């Protein structure tokens, strides 16, 4: 998978994509590897290359959102200055991910603010899509009592 083939990075200037490609790392992780923990400082974003990642929230019970589509971006709090992860990212299967360091990405955005703006807009779109999916799944549950 070439990074600019992912929906998130599609159409970004090739010069900038070369800079982003130079700062990312591809990582293989076995099942049950914790990529990041809830409430931890968000220092990276991730792109799924292969496998399944569960975004896990524990608060009395456990709620997991599985990600299994190659090219899916997660750990999006890593795009926001001072952000913390709102869930834990745990490999549900052996997985391969692309990891991009936020500070290095910010340096590229400082040089190319137009690209930073495009990706922040895409970040909003991804978050909206994820929130809609969460609402859909939440309201698909049967309720035993009226709200």
Protein architecture, described:
With 147 residues, this protein is α+β, with helices and mostly antiparallel strands. It has a single domain (3-134), classed as Jelly Rolls (Sandwich). 33% of the residues lie in helices and 29% in strands. The protein contains three helices and eight strands, in the order αββββββββαα. It has helices spanning 14-23, 102-111, 113-140, and strands at residues 25-29, 34-36, 44-50, 53-59, 61-67, 73-74, 88-91, 95-101. The strands form two sheets. It has a four-stranded antiparallel beta sheet. A four-stranded antiparallel beta sheet has the order 2-7-4-5, with no helix packed on it. A hairpin with a 1-residue loop joins strand 4 (53-59) and strand 5 (61-67). Helix 2 (102-111) crosses helix 3. The chain is globular and about 45 Å long. The model has no long low-confidence stretch (mean pLDDT 88).
What class, by secondary structure content? alpha+beta
Q: Which strand order spans the largest sheet, edge to edge or round the barrel? A: 1-8-3-6
Task: Please state the second-level CATH architecture.
Answer: Sandwich
**Low-confidence parts lasting 5 or more residues at pLDDT below 50?**
none
Average pLDDT over all residues: 88
Strand content: 25-35%
- How many domains make up the coordinates? 1
CATH superfamily: Jelly Rolls
- The CATH C-level class name: Mainly Beta
Provide the gyration radius in Å. 16 Å
The quaternary structure here is single chain
CATH topology: Jelly Rolls
